[in-house]
Amino acid sequence: MEQEQQQLNELLMIRRRKLEELRNRGVEPFGQKFEADYYSADIIGNFDTLESREVTVAGRLISIRSHGKAAFAHLQDYRGQIQIYLRQDQVGEEQYEIFDFVDIGDFIGVVGDVFKTRKGEVTVNVKKYTYLAKALRPLPEKWHGLKDIELRYRQRYVDLIVNEEVKQTFIDRSRIISAMRELLNEWGFLEVETPIMQTIAGGALARPFVTHHNALDIKLFLRIATELHLKRLLVGGLDKVYEIGRIFRNEGISTIHNPEFTSVEIYQNYADYEDMMKITENLVCQIAQKVFGTGKISFQGKEVDLTPPWPRETMIDVVRKYSGVDFSQISDDQSAFEAARKAGLELDKGLPWGEVLYLFFEEFCEEQLLDPIFVTEFPIEVSPLAKKLPSDPRLTLRFEGFIAGWEIANAFTELNDPIDQRERFEQQLGKREAGDDEAHVMDNDFINALEHGMPPAGGLGIGIDRLVMLLTDNISIRDVILFPTLKPRAGGE
Predict the structure, then answer these.
(1) Res. 418: pLDDT tops 80
(2) What's the CA gap between 135 and 102, in Å, rounded?
(3) Closest CA to 405 of 357, 359, 382, 371
(4) Predicted confidence band at 436 (pLDDT cuts at 50, 70, 90)?
(5) How much is the pLDDT for 491?
(6) What pairs with residue 70 in β-bridges?
(7) What are residue 323's phi and psi, to 5 degrees?
(8) Comparing C-alpha atoms, which of 358, 376, 367 is closest to residue 404?
(9) Coil, helix or strand for 5?
(10) Burial (CB count within 10 angstroms: exposed 0-12, middle 13-18, buried 19+), residue 487
């Protein structure tokens, strides 16, 4: 390790000396505006029309091969790479000598004619070049071989330079979000914005981040969901709304959890969770078709068919299938506790029937749900904002959509009865008093909004990061968030 650091320090010093030599020769290593008229891919793809024509291109040098009075190099830009060819008799002796101080990683702008080498590679024959930026640190030679995988996330800027597939993932992420917006707008939904800092953290069962507003001398919370503000808009008469935005939850980090993530929440008056199922399956499938040209994707070597309709199964049926325990035959809390104990689950006595059912689902079922499926009828204890199932008030009109063992969508027929909602909040307050700091808080203003009347409505939330993971075949959320949350290293890195 010490030897590697010494070698790095020597390379850094060499580059600094080259920087000074460039300035001594009257060359500014950090240049000005440069207008390129083509990307590399445009030149390569349109060679037949551009052959022998002059083009202007700019990018980062990623390879250099000198041969006496000539040199080949590869220039990398946003759209790919292209070879350039410099000859001393073409650019002049002075300019060619200056090229000796160019390093891999430097940015240059090039003007030259397009031709093909004898090996058939499209190349720009350089007439002149301009220095745009000197790289004072070398690029890693074998980025994939680094033992410290977190370094890729900590130095995403380098990861993007040397790993084309990483850059493509984030291009695809942007296209996925754009396609989502296009579809929702086409379907008549209005995009809105709601507060990120809130006086009450509501809309989900999660622990918030806390901050303080000095001028007002009040505690504020980074939002854990957009739900309650969006439903206030339904009360106000906006029939179909959605918001794509950042959500913050003070929770653990894993391959599918990051404290800061992106979601879309969608709400529609006069709808229910059946309508939300149709929106979910059509939205996911049509995004895939728009971005990747197919509703059938490959995830970790397995084909996943996103074509609607997706199967619907109740949580009780799914738990029976994968655990062998039939909660339709268990009617009381004590019997549910005994069933959990026999199944090897460790839990506190006194948990209600619905929470035990949900624990069975988490423990035995979620990872089994590989093909697209909607799991319906969640227990009321874990669904404080969903309307009760008319035939069984222990359950709610709620579903979650699962693909590849991940929850990617959560939706309800929204609870619009202010009296019932207040009682649910009060039950959640009891949990908080018992030590559950993820239980929902009382939101009197939201109750006040419901008392003004909210029509029957359906609401849906989709985790965009997990959707991107699925569609781009990535198994870690860190691979689809440009700058994931990481524990700082010593020295503040």
Answers:
(1) yes
(2) 9
(3) 371
(4) confident
(5) 59
(6) 67, 87
(7) -115, -20
(8) 367
(9) helix
(10) exposed
Cα–Cα distance for residue pair 30/395, rounded to 1 Å: 64
Gyration radius (Cα) of the chain, Å: 29
- Residues 183/246, Cβ–Cβ less than 8 Å: no
Which distant-in-sequence residues (6+ apart) come within 8 Å of 316 by Cβ? 326, 327, 328, 357, 377
> Alpha-carbon dihedral of residues 470, 474, 479, 482, nearest 10 degrees?
-40
What's the mean pLDDT in 255-278? 97
pLDDT of residue 492: 54
Query: What are the two backbone dihedrals, phi and then psi, of residue 28, each rounded to the nearest 5 degrees?
Result: -80, 115
181-193: b or e for each residue (b if 16 or more CB lie within 10 Å)? eebbeeeebeeee
SS3 489: coil
Identity of residue 447:
I
Coil, strand or helix at 212: strand
Q: Which two tokens stand for residue 193?
A: 């914005």
* pLDDT attached to residue 32: 95
Domains by residue range for the chain, with CATH: 2-133 (2.40.50.140), 162-311+371-479 (3.30.930.10)
Only one residue has tokens 């009828």, namely 377
DSSP summary character for residue 217: T
Torsion over CA of 176, 182, 186 and 192, rounded to 10 degrees?
100
Q: Can you name the residues that pair with 412 across neighbouring β-strands?
A: 398, 459
Side-chain-side CA neighbours of 157 within 13 Å: the count stands at 5
Beta carbons within 10 angstroms of residue 398's beta carbon: 27
End-to-end CA distance of the chain: 18
* CA dist., res. 42 & res. 14, Å (int): 35
473 burial (CB, 10 Å; 0-12 / 13-18 / 19+) is middle
